[in-house]
Amino acid sequence: MTLEPSMYTRYWRDGWVIVEDVFPTDEVDRIARLAVDVSETQIDPDDSYSTDASADGAITAPRKVDLPFVIEPEFRPFVLHPNLQSLLETLIGCPPRLFADQIMMKPPRVGSEKQYHQDNYYFRLAPDDRVITAWIALDDVDEENGCLRYIDGSHRDGLLPHTPVPGAPHNLSPPADQVDLSKESLAIVGKGGVVFHHGLALHTSHRNRSDRWRRGYATHWVGPDMTDLDGPDGRLATAYFNRPDLANVLA
Q1: Architecture of domain 5-246 in this structure
Q2: What is residue 95's three-state secondary structure?
Q3: What's the burial of 40, exposed, middle or buried (CB within 10 Å: 0-12/13-18/19+)?
Q4: Helical H runs in 48-194?
Q5: Continuous segment of H or E residues that includes residue 11
Q6: pTM value surpassing 0.70
Q7: 15: how many CB neighbours lie within 10 A of its CB?
Q8: What residue segments make up the domains of the chain, in order of their start?
Q9: Do 88 and 196 meet the contact criterion of CB atoms below 8 Å apart?
Q10: DSSP H or E stretch at residue 5
C-alpha cells in the first residue's frame, strides 16, 4: 500500500495522520469479535470499569486487552499485514519492529476518557522520530463514541513532564498549561482505517457516549538501533522483537 505524499507531509507537520481502508472490513469485524471474546477472560479490577451509566445499575465491562499479539496467535497475521508494514516504513524511513500492542475496548456508554499524554513518556526510547503508534479502528470512530484527539504539532515540543491525574493515579498527564487546546483536532476514522501518530504527539480520547463500540487496536513500533533511556532495565528488554518466544513470528 502506497502512502500519498500529502499524508506523509501531514504526519510530520501535525504529528499524526489518518489512512483509511488499510484493512478489509470483514477481517476487521472478525478481529473485533475476537477482541471481545478474549477480553471476557481478562477482566480484573485493573482492566474493567464499574459505572452507574445504565438504568440497570452498575456495569462491569472490559477496558482493554493487554498483549494480544502474545496471548492469541490469531491476532498476529492482522498486525503484520503488509499494508500496515508498508505505511509504517514510509513514515519512519526504516523497517518497523513491533514493540508492544494493546486493544482499547471502550464499550457502549461505559468506555471512559483517557487524559492527554505522550506515548514515549512511558516507552522512553530514542530517537523519538522512530517511535510510532498505528491505531487500527475496529469500528467506525467519531466524536460521539470517543475518537482520538490530538494537539497538532505537539511532537515538535519535546518530551513533557507527566504527573498522576487526580482521582486516577494510574494515568499520567502533562500539566494543563502544556496542552494547547486551541490546536486540538479530532481523528474521525472509518472501520479498517489507521491513525498513525508520533511517539511525542499529545493525544487523548473522551468518554464513549454512544450505543456503539469503539474498539481500537493500538500497535506500537520502533526502528532498528533504538536506545533505551532507562538503560538495560528499560522497556526495550521486554519489547516483542526481543522476546525469544516470538523470534520465529517476527523474523
Answers
A1: Sandwich (2.60)
A2: coil
A3: exposed
A4: 68-71, 76-79, 82-92, 119-123
A5: helix 5-14
A6: yes
A7: 24
A8: 5-246
A9: yes
A10: helix 5-14
Interatomic CA distance for residues 176 and 178, integer angstroms: 5
Instruction: Give the integer Cα–Cα distance in Å for 223 and 91.
Output: 11
Which of the listed ranges 4-18, 42-56, 60-74 does the model predict with the highest average pLDDT? 4-18
Q: How far is CA 117 from the centre of its chain?
A: 12
pLDDT digits (tens, 9 = 90+) for 162-215: 999 887 767 899 999 999 999 999 999 999 999 999 999 999 999 999 999 999
CA distance 6 to 249: 33
Q: Are the C-beta atoms of residues 176 and 165 closer than 8 Å to each other?
A: no
End-to-end Cα, the chain, rounded Å: 21
CA distance 138 to 35: 10
The three three-digit cell numbers of residue 6, written as one number: 500529502
Q: What's the chain's Rg over C-alpha atoms? A: 17
Q: How many residues would you count in the chain? A: 251
Q: Taking a C-beta distance cutoff of 8 angstroms, is the pair 181, 133 a contact?
A: no
**pLDDT tens per residue across span 222-251:** 999 999 999 988 999 999 999 999 999 998
Q: What residue has cell string 476487521?
A: 28
**5-14 vs 82-92: helix axis angle to the nearest 10?**
60
